[in-house]
Amino acid sequence: MSDGKAVVSRQVLLPFILVTSLFSLWGFANDITNPMVAAFKNILLISNFESSLVQFAFYGGYCVMAIPAAFFIKRYTYKKGILLGLVLYATGCLLFIPSGMTMQFWAFLIAYFVMTCGLSFLETSANPYILSMGAEETSTRRLNFAQSFNPMGSILGMFVARTFILEKLDKTSEDARRVLRETAPETFEQIAAHDIGVIQGPYAVLGIVVFVVLIIFAVSRLPMSAGEEHKQIDGLATLKRLWQNKKYMEGVVAQTFYVGAQIMCWTFIIQYAVNELGMDKATAQSYNMVAMGIFVTSRFICTFLLKYFSPGGLLMSLAIAGGLLVAGTILIKGMMGLYCLVGVSACMSLMFPTIYGIALKGLGDDAKLGAAGLIMAIGGGCLMPPMQGWIMDQNDLSLGFMSLTSVRASFVLPFICFVVIAIYGFRTSAIHKHTN
Fold first, then answer.
1. I need a labelling partner for 302 at 20 to 30 A (CA). Which of 240, 329, 353, 395 fits?
2. Which has more confidence, 134 or 377?
């Protein structure tokens, strides 16, 4: 039901706009990186599992740094957490320059890890900071609105990945590269060096942009949130309270499975289109951009619908729809299966900020450490893509009445994720309804 309260008051409008800009900044990083899984596979001639280690390193930074970020923010302020996050983000981007010089996959993985240690600070700071910028009754709507700008950065990241990376990579096929590696290794090295250079450029430019944003935040005045003046850290007592809060703990689980589903669906659109439909990678990336456009549109629609429907009920409905569309991706061949995979984005748009808002509602000052647990849950994007990549590397599957390619069969993982999210949505609306 609509409560008539302003989602963002005039007093905090400018800080809200500034902090909301960060959502686009980490959205860009996420979605310029997803297509790199397919790019590195072709350039370095590695397996689906090995190439998906890009996501392991990228989302591993979130998982490792979330708790330290929360303690840092508790000891200092949201602003200082944002500044440190931007320093690490810019450093990780600029590490692509020496990584390209070594032409070693592990060096790029380190750069991704450092970058997302910074993103972990940004998300651990910005999400609860946005929640605190107004009445608690409007906190979930406020976060959904701020998160609406995240996919705008994602679309730009996808565009840069397609136009300035995928389309500029050497068109030599993977099979032809394998032959060259054996028969003409110098030619193979030249092609690989060219492609690595193509990948380097946009990340180096991104590092410079992030550094400029760092300067803007350093000279800007951001208001203290309620309770931010309390610096005492009682981590064990806070962790105990969070552990005993079923709504929160189930939210961490649901967020883990949501992020896993999101990253799998977006990362492997390219593999699905290339392997199932014979598309080239740049064309396949266009479908990823369409998916993100649907995601953006749906985010604004869902933010509006939250005025009239409960967050838990809407979350459950969209999770069920997402599961059905993923089932279509698995069972339906051809373009219709791809359309189902693209359509999943309409269902995912509501999920991250809504799970986040539901889980943190009523936590008070415990929300700082609670937010870290929900950022750690982004580790679902660290573990699940390699699992899906491993399934893709296996032989096709026969079900007796039909056969499934390993690519289509691998989408059983995001299907399971949506089942878990639907259960959390149901429990939120039916069981945790009166929990604070």
1. 329
2. 377
DSSP secondary structure string for all residues of 7-59: SS-GGGHHHHHHHHHHHHHHHHHHHHHTTHHHHHHHHHT--HHHHTHHHHHHH
Could you give the domains of the chain? 10-223+234-430 (1.20.1250.20)
- Cα–Cα distance for residue pair 353/145, rounded to 1 Å: 9
Q: Evaluate if residue 306 carries a pLDDT over 70.
A: yes
Lowest mean pLDDT across 75-84, 163-172, 223-232: 223-232
Amino acid at 36: M
How many CA within 13 A on the CB side of residue 435?
A: 21
- Residue bearing tokens 């990083």: 29
The answer to whether 121 touches 346, Cβ cutoff 8 Å, is: no
Q: Compute the distance between CA of residue 192 and CA of residue 52 in angstroms, rounded to an integer.
A: 19
Question: Which residues are 398's β-sheet partners?
Answer: 403
Q: Are 350 and 318 in contact (CB under 8 A)?
A: yes
